[in-house]
Design goal:
The complex is a heterodimer of chains A (284) and B (324). Chain A is mainly α and 284 residues long. Chain A has helices spanning 2-18, 20-42, 74-110, 112-127, 130-139, 145-154, 158-171, 175-182, 187-195, 200-223, 235-244, 250-278. Chain A contains twelve helices and no strands. The longest helix of chain A is centred in the first third of the chain and has 37 residues, at 74-110. Chain A is elongated, with a radius of gyration of 22 Å. The two termini of chain A are 23 Å apart. Chain B is mostly helical and 324 residues long. In chain B, 78% of the residues lie in helices and 0% in strands. In chain B, helix 11 runs antiparallel to helix 12. The radius of gyration of chain B is 24 Å and the shape is globular. Chain B starts with a helix and ends with a helix. Classes of the chains: A mainly alpha (284), B mainly alpha (324).
Chain lengths: 284, 324
């Protein structure tokens, strides 16, 4: 473990720090975390407070992002929407990473028919247009944020499985794995203690990029009215009213979309930065 | 080549079976009987529809028997009847909407690759210059823009502000009276925004991929040889290098199909285009269960066929694979 901490301190962090774009991404990600954590304290209004005298009023000093069709403050709603996006992004990707890693580890380590069955399953899952599969599953369930997270995770693990398997295939031929086997380590111990930690770097990159993808998917689902249900604010469902009032209220469409754009951009930049920092071939 | 083809086609069979198995699992994901679920969600589904559904899926029989019955129906292209008031066979509904979605997606793919290839090549050739950096910024923005938001912005700008492009449907009201050239013009005007949105989605990814493929090729010995022969830089880049860098893009085109088909739900819904994506969305919203399952299977099969075509294209283009 000490090697790992020293790697982070002497190689990974300096490399990431040198990458200005990745650093900017990290900064925005941290800012978003703080914003969603502190949303109840920094939001100027209650996000579901209806005000009949302030319906669809354009951005002003009292309402930075304007108000929506019920007179609710769009800035406060976007702020609370950040909570949903973050929650969905992390839980969905958590599920995808756990499932994908388990499948990839098993397929790569046991090889043979286990590998064949698992990887063919991956191939088949990849045949389904992901958005169709998600929508089809949601058809049978009550719309709820927990189902959304689970479904995005359960339809998004295949990439991670392929990555982990490829890593495991090369790691299992290493001498230290042979050594571990010689001193009588069980398969489970070898997988968890010797292979998994060494296969994690591509997973970290895929997970960071995956959070961005999950946020995009959730916003699209909510936009279509199948995701997070009103009155809970999410960036996607604010945009739904943006579409309905597009002729009168551009601010309803502009700001939530920008929030998605900036968030996804930040995670992508951070992910690419982590990839470069972990890549042994990249120059220091 | 024939052996390769035969092998590749034979591989489709287990994949198709797998697709049907997963679709069948999705049907049974719902807690309780799918029919009860249907009843609870959609009070419009009457007793008669319930009996028909139970009979169609053979829900009173054991699971494996249900699967086999459903599979046999599927093999005969019997996808059941829609729950909607028209009660038409699902296959007919898909048949009349599939051509719209397919042609839109094909135009989008052509446009996307037609733009992404030169963009990627330029970024690779002018590596680390302001042009490359500019393209990289564009690529990252492209990755991050939600397509439905882009659609909204375009609708606002071209439809509301400038009021120069139609923002919904495929035709103007009363277009039947137009001459054929006016009809074509009308259709093209309706298609500009949806196709722009559909192709923008993966433009960034493809050009990024093209850039790295090109960077890999430029360092090869045969490029040095071509330059040493005294060929002009244009011929070296656009003929010798590009041809080799294009190969992996064929596979990428195959991989981009599920994304495009999935994306059609979004842009067809926003722009009110009567394609398969819109049918799927309507099916989801009204819990029209046979329609949703039918499109899910068809969508996956289409992807499978797309990948097959891409693989054959790759084999035709790359003699190393053909002669294996």
């Amino acid at each position: 473990m000490s090697f790992r901490t020293s790697f982070i301190a002497t190689v990974f962090w300096p490399r990431l720090k040198a990458n200005r774009l990745a650093l900017a991404g990290l900064f925005v990600v941290i800012l978003l975390f703080l914003a969603s954590l502190l949303a109840p304290f920094i939001a100027p209004y209650n996000p579901s407070e209806i005000n009949a005298w302030q319906v669809l009023s354009p951005p002003s000093l009292s309402h930075l992002f304007g108000t929506d069709e019920l007179g609710r403050d769009v800035f406060s709603r976007v702020l609370f929407g950040a909570r949903i996006s973050l929650k969905v992004g992390f839980v969905a990707i958590g599920i995808a990473v756990l499932l994908g890693s388990a499948v990839g580890l098993a397929a790569g380590y046991y090889a043979g028919w286990v590998d064949t069955v698992l990887m063919r399953t991956v191939d088949i899952m990849l045949c389904f247009p992901a958005f169709f599969l998600i929508l089809a599953i949601i058809t049978f369930l009550e719309p709820s944020i927990w189902y959304i997270m689970a479904v995005i995770g359960l339809t998004g693990w295949m990439g991670v499985a392929r990555l982990v398997r490829a890593e495991v295939l090369s790691i299992r031929e290493m001498d230290y794995i042979l050594a571990a086997r010689c001193i009588g380590c069980s398969d489970l111990r070898i997988i968890v203690y010797h292979i998994l930690p060494n296969a994690l770097s591509p997973v970290l990159v895929a997970a960071t990029l995956g959070v961005a993808g999950a946020i995009l998917t959730e916003s699209a689902l909510s936009f279509l009215g199948i995701g997070v249900q009103p009155p809970t604010p999410s960036w996607g469902n604010i945009l739904t009213s943006g579409k309905d009032y597009i002729e009168f209220a551009w601010w309803l469409s502009l700001y939530p979309g920008l929030a998605i754009l900036v968030t996804v951009l930040a995670y992508n930049l951070l992910g690419e930065g982590i990839r470069d920092a972990l890549d042994p071939r990249s120059k220091n | 080549m024939t052996v390769y083809l035969l092998k590749r086609v034979a591989m489709l069979v287990p994949l198709m079976l797998g697709i049907t198995l997963i679709t069948f699992t999705v049907i049974h994901l719902a807690p309780g009987e799918p029919v009860d679920m249907q009843m609870a969600m959609n009070p419009k589904v009457g007793k008669e529809a319930r009996e028909r559904l139970t009979k169609f899926y053979g829900l009173d029989k054991p699971l494996h028997e249900q699967y086999l019955t459903w599979l046999a129906k599927l093999a005969r292209l019997d996808l059941g009847r829609s729950f909607s008031s028209d009660n038409r066979p699902v296959l007919d509904k898909i048949k009349e909407r599939l051509p719209i979605t397919l042609s839109l997606n094909i135009i989008a793919i052509v446009l996307e690759f037609g733009l992404a290839i030169p963009i990627g090549v330029m970024a690779a050739v002018y590596r680390d210059t302001w042009l490359d950096k500019g393209i990289t910024v564009f690529v990252f923005l492209g990755f991050a823009v939600p397509t439905f938001w882009l659609a909204l912005l375009l609708m606002y700008f071209f439809g509301v502000k400038l009021n120069c492009l139609p923002i919904s449907g495929l035709h103007t009201l009363g277009y039947e009276a137009y001459s054929w050239s006016a009809r074509l013009w009308d259709l093209s005007k309706h298609l500009i925004l949806p196709i722009a949105v559909a192709s923008f989605g993966s433009l960034a990814g493809v050009s990024r991929y093209m850039r790295s493929a090109m960077l890999g090729v430029i360092e090869q010995d045969y490029i040095i040889t071509a330059r040493a022969k005294g060929l002009s830089e244009g011929v070296v880049i656009w003929k010798h290098a590009l041809r080799n860098a294009l190969l992996p893009l064929i596979t990428l085109a195959g991989f981009s199909i599920p994304g495009l088909i999935g994306g059609s739900v979004i842009f067809e819904t926003i722009f009110a285009i009567p394609g398969m994506g819109q049918l799927f969305y309507q099916g989801v919203m009204s819990r029209d269960y046979p329609v949703v399952m039918g499109i899910l299977v068809i969508g996956a099969f289409l992807t499978l066929i797309g990948n097959l075509i891409a693989d054959i294209g790759y084999a035709l283009a790359d003699p190393r694979i053909r002669h294996q």
